[in-house]
């Protein structure tokens, strides 16, 4: 049964269908000029030097971590320590486990849903090499404070920005504060290319490593002079199957690149409408007697609307879900909830240095509903009138 207020809807129109037809008519479906063009235009949009498109946001996270192991200076090594928030998507964490890193989980702030910055600061040890900042549900982290925390260290900062395309902090796009940032263009995200993901960076060496890791670990997609092998051979035959890094095949399709070009044209208006809904949601829900909504940091791009039951309320989540369902709202947990409670954690090398009371509370008392690229006044009005 379809919901009156679903989590996600299509953002495609005739332009995307026409773009797909052009690719079909060309007969070229593997990664090519449309992907290249989309990468160039995306990097300009977020004001980053380089962009690499892949087949998903999950793959973007995978390559982002892998690239840090193959850079020339201060590469990551197995058993190195990385700090992560307790609430994020599974594939924010899985590449860290797959590359043998040790995770230190930090609580979230119950209002912003991003890092508890006090815990983050105190979780750092002499072994900490990396911080993964996850911008949750469109909300950027407080990067001014994070940069102050790590200013006298060699700790690397990277961002999982898969849910927060278009968000800004201090007039800078989320996803561009760290050494690298990942984005997703899955169906339910701010733009959709079927499946898809992107990585941005200002670092040329990492850019070239990402190009290599994306396609088989070979040199074929590198420029002649590059940061991975120096200079490629003039012999095209010898260079065609030259494998230099243990890579993957996570290339996107030309269809996705062509769709992305059309979606990027529409993105400013998508963000404008999502923010308008966000302002309406804040005005209507800030003083709700039973429910807490996400506190905006910077300028959120409002991926969705989180709802957490107030600690002083007698409401329980089952009743809340039942009430929302009767109104026609599709609901989900807030991303993964507290990820440390998942069964898969038995495969991880990890520590939880401090009690994570907020992640635990959110795990039991939180959910989110969808936001969209069109007005949602009726939905917001209905949920704001809920009383228990």
Arithmetic mean of pLDDT: 97
- Main CATH class of the largest domain: Alpha Beta
Q: Which strand order does the major sheet show?
A: 1-9-8-5-4-2-3-14
Main sheet: strands, sense, barrel:
8 strands, mixed
> How much beta, percentage-wise?
15-25%
Note the run of SSEs as H and E. Answer: HHEHEHEHEHEEEEEHEEHHEEHEHEH
> Under CATH, the topology of the largest domain is which?
Aspartate Aminotransferase, domain 2
In terms of structural class, how would the helical and strand content be classed?
Answer: alpha/beta
Helix content: 25-40%
Query: Any guess at the CATH architecture of the largest domain?
Result: 3-Layer(aba) Sandwich
What characteristic shape results from the CA principal axes? globular
């Amino acid at each position: 049964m379809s919901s009156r207020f679903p989590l996600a809807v299509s953002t495609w129109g005739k332009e995307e269908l026409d773009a797909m037809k052009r690719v079909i008519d060309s007969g070229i479906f593997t990664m090519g000029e449309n992907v290249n063009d989309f990468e160039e235009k995306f990097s300009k949009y977020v004001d980053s030097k380089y962009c690499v498109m892949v087949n998903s946001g999950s793959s973007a996270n995978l390559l982002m971590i892998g690239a840090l192991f193959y850079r020339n200076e201060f590469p990551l090594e197995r058993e190195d320590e990385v700090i992560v928030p307790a609430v994020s998507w599974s594939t924010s964490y899985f590449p860290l486990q797959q590359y043998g890193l040790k995770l230190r989980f930090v609580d979230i702030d119950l209002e912003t849903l991003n890092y508890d910055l006090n815990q983050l600061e105190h979780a750092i040890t002499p072994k900490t090499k990396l911080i993964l900042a996850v911008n949750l549900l469109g909300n950027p982290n407080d990067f001014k404070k994070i940069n102050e925390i790590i200013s006298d260290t060699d700790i690397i900062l990277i961002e999982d920005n898969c849910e927060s395309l278009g968000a800004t902090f201090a007039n800078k796009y989320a996803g561009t504060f760290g050494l690298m940032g990942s984005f997703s263009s899955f169906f339910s995200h701010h733009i959709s290319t079927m499946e898809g993901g992107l990585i941005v960076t200002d670092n040329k060496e990492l850019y070239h490593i990402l190009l290599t890791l994306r396609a088989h670990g070979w040199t074929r997609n590198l420029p002649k002079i590059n940061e991975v092998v120096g200079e490629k051979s003039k012999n095209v035959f010898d260079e065609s199957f030259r494998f230099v890094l243990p890579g993957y095949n996570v290339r996107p399709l030309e269809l996705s690149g062509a769709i992305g070009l059309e979606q990027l044209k529409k993105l400013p208006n998508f963000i404008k409408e999502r923010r308008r809904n966000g302002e309406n949601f804040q005005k209507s829900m800030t003083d709700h007697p039973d429910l807490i909504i996400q506190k905006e940091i910077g300028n959120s791009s409002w991926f969705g609307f989180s709802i957490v039951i107030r600690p002083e309320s007698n409401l329980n989540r089952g009743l809340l879900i039942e009430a929302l369902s009767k109104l026609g709202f599709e609901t989900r947990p807030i991303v993964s909830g507290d990820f440390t409670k998942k069964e898969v954690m038995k495969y991880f090398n990890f520590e939880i240095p401090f009690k994570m009371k907020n992640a635990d509370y959110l795990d039991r008392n939180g959910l989110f509903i969808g936001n969209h690229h069109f007005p949602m006044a009726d939905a917001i009005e209905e949920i704001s009138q809920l009383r228990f």
